[in-house]
Each structure stands twice: as C-alpha cells, then as structure tokens.
Amino acid sequence: MQRLDMKQLLSQKLSPQQIQFIKLLQIPTVELEARIKEELEANPALEEGDDQEEEFEEQERDDSDDAEDDFDDPDAEFDNPDNTLDEDFDSGPADEQPELDLSAKEEPAEIKESESADDLDLSDYLHDDEIAGYKMQGDGPGEDEDDREMPLADTSGSLVDNLLDQLGFASLDEQQEAIGRQLIGSIDGDGYIRRDLSAIANDLAFSQNIEATVPEIESVLHVIQTFDPAGIGARDLQECLLLQLERRPQDEATEHAEQILNETFDEFTKKHYQRIQQKLDLEDDELKDAIALILKLNPKPGGTGPVGMGKVQYIIPDFLLTHDNGQFNLTLNTRNAPDLRVSPAYTEMFQAYDKASKKDKKMKEAVTFVKQKLDSAKWFIDAIRQRQNTLLRTMDAIVRYQREFFAEGDESKLRPMILKDIAQEIGMDISTVSRVANSKAVQTEFGIYPLKYFFSEGIATDSGEDASSREVKHILKEIIEGEQKNRPLSDDKLEKMLNARGYNIARRTVAKYREQLNIPVARLRKEL
Questions:
Q1: What is the pTM of this model?
Q2: What is the pLDDT of residues 76-92, one digit of tens each?
Q3: Which of 91, 150, 373, 474 is most buried, judged by most C-beta within 10 A?
C-alpha cells in the first residue's frame, strides 16, 4: 500500500559561492596562483587587469572616434583641382608608380570589436567542459621579477638513473646486468635494499624469466655496493656504515670504528660506551676518535647529493610584516592580490545579444552561455577579494595579540593563544581561522614562520599568569643545550628545574615537549 507523507525540514546548505570561497581560503600562495591560471583558461570572461586599465582603454576609443571625425575624408585634398602635387611627382608612367590605397584606412577599435563579436561562433564554447592544462609561473615579490625562475635543486639525474649509468660501465654479462637493474629498481629512496634477495629472485623468474640463485644475486649486489654514493645498496644500517668505512684510509681510527660496528653494534646504538670500552679494551682517546668517525658517516646515502630523490622545498610567505619606528606594516604577498576583471568584450557581447530584436534558440543558448561565464567570473573575483580581506583581518589580529614577539623576535615573549581567541577578535568562526592558519606563513624581520607557530596552549605559573607552551619549550631547549654532555639530564631533573623557574609542569609533559623538539632521551644524548 502506497502512502503520501508531507514533511517539513529546515536545513542549511552552502551555496556554490561559499564553497568556492572556503576552498580558496585554505590554499597557500603557490596553489592560489595555479588556481587562478586554471580559472583564466577555463573562463574566457575572466581576464587579468584592473578597472583602471578598462577606463583607459575606453578613453582611447573615444579619442580614436574624435580623430575619425577630424579626418573624415583624407582624399579631399588630393581631389582638389588646384592641387599641384600631381605636377611635382608626375615623373614616370602610371604602371611604374606604386599605388597608395587610401581607402583602406584603419578602423577604430570599437568597430573591430563589434565585428569580431558578430563573427564569433559561440557554439564552439557551448559544450566546452574540459579545462585545459596550465603551467605555474615562477614566484617573485614584484613585477620586475616575473620572468625570473625560482631556483630549484639540480634534479637532472635521479638516484636510479645515476646507478644505471654506473651499471653500464661495470664488467657484467647480460644476465648479471638484468639482475643489476632489478636490484637498482628495488633500492628505496634512502639508498637501502630492504627486500629479501629470495624475493628478488622470484621477481626475476616471474617478470623476466631469469633463473638466478641468491648467491648470484648477492655477487651482483656487491658490485652495486661499490657505486657512488658510498653505502648505497646496503641492507641495514650496520652494513651501510661498514661500506663507507671500507672506502676510507685504513688508519687506526677506521680499524677501531669497524671493530665497534662489527662486534658491539647493539651497544653502539644504545650508547653504552663503557661496555664497548671494556669489551674491546680501548683507551678513552681511541674510543672517542672512533665514535667521532662513525658519527660523520651518512646513514641515508640515497637522500643526499645531486642524485637525491626529491627537490628542495621553498616556503613562499603569504604575508610580509615590517616593523618601522614602533609601527607594524602588514601586506599581502603580491601573488595573493592579483588584478582580475570581467572581460569588457564579453560584457558588450551580452548587452548586444540582450538588445537584439530577433532571438532564436541558438541566440538564447549563446546568451545563456555568456551569462553563466560572466556570473562565474564575478563570483571568482568576489571570492578572491573576500579571501584577501579575511587573510589580512586574521593576520592583523595575530600581530596585535603577539605584538611583543614581533617587536623583539624572542620566543619567550609569545603569549598563549588558541584559535578561539583570534576568532572572537575578528568575529568569525573558529573553522575560518583554522583554514587561514593552515599552510600559511609570514615573513618577519626575524625569519619566516608558519601561522600555526603562534598558536600554543597555556601553562600555569607560580605568578598566576599562563605561559605559552612555546616559551616552555624554548627554556627546555636552552637547559638541554647547556647540560653536561657526559652527564645529560633526565626528564625528572628537567621537571624539577622547570618547576624551580615557576612553571607548573609534570614529567610526562616534559617528555612530550622534548619529543616534539626531536630531542632524544638522556641516555641517547650522552657524549664522550
């Protein structure tokens, strides 16, 4: 049995304009530039420039119209019977004289635009749903540097390509070269081979129909381990360090280092230096020189040099903050404030079609297409402007809140600040502030900082005021840097020292902050 029911629902939905603004708000400067280029290629009604340029173009059109009125008939002077120019220049037959076509005078820009608009076949655009690819420009702070390329690391040769080139110079037969290519393809980005050689043998059998034993694969691996960079193709950290020591001059320090890695590797990783010294019967100076040599080796040979796997990442600040005579000047990066406008040609085209007396189905489709593109261009420009306004308001509130830090650059001057504080300051939602703080950075006189750096929780102090967790981390780092390296401080001692300075903090919080600072435990910080 079928029934018809009526329900009354009240729901909130984001409009397409709001969704577009949210997406633009959370992307950084580099992605914004790429997004604008994508929109420029997808929407012909959107173009670069500002309203002042459009007014200047209209003024030029008016001037050209006035010039047309002044020189309405350029042939009048030559048609005058009293003109003696023909007598002065009549020096040969007519067929030898070059013809001067005065009738093909230059037409004003306004007439050309109207003709091109009439000849434009809008049916080519009606089903153009695909977005063409785009190419990102180099970054730069001003117009003078638009043509400058952003410096990137030399990544012309990858790690695999470099190793394959060296494999070609090795004296190997056809099967050994195939095994070598398979091994090189199994090397991770940090330069290690973590797959079992038996699994690589199975890959050779199934993918290339090559039967190879584990000893044969291992012999080719030993050849690859002689390639550059040193330590490449190792199966673990111990083997990687030993491969690098084999290429060093075999002096006393190198021999002791190899002995430490071969016989007491577990004690070395745990920094149990007394056990190493007792087991290998080494003097203090000998142990110190050997450990210093090992610490100079590269634990990740595949991630360094021109054969590295990745590119150098550059941080492009979204804000520029300067401090002059007690006044802060906050500006957006020029890439965050592009000049966009609605194409005047499409506006005139829409007006012409709207005023046309004859309107058939094809005409209505053309008008609908132009109207959609014009609306989309206006929405995009409004979203960009709203994004700029939101970014400036949020960053301005952060600068006011952390004024002492931006004036001196001292981390101890950072105040406890959470997203809610800034949201209440600017009268916006916390999610909006979160989108602004995410993946944005500001350039100050003391360096470039991500906006998330200024948000921190508060730690209670004896004075009754809350201190920023950044301040506590800064002091914790200073205490650890000033400790005796042969007797590092434990978390319990660090807790007592911080409590003595007035910070009410627990030992587990000290351990959490130490881990966030990438500082190991006391046992691993010990040095000879």
A1: 0.54
A2: 443 444 444 344 434 44
A3: 373
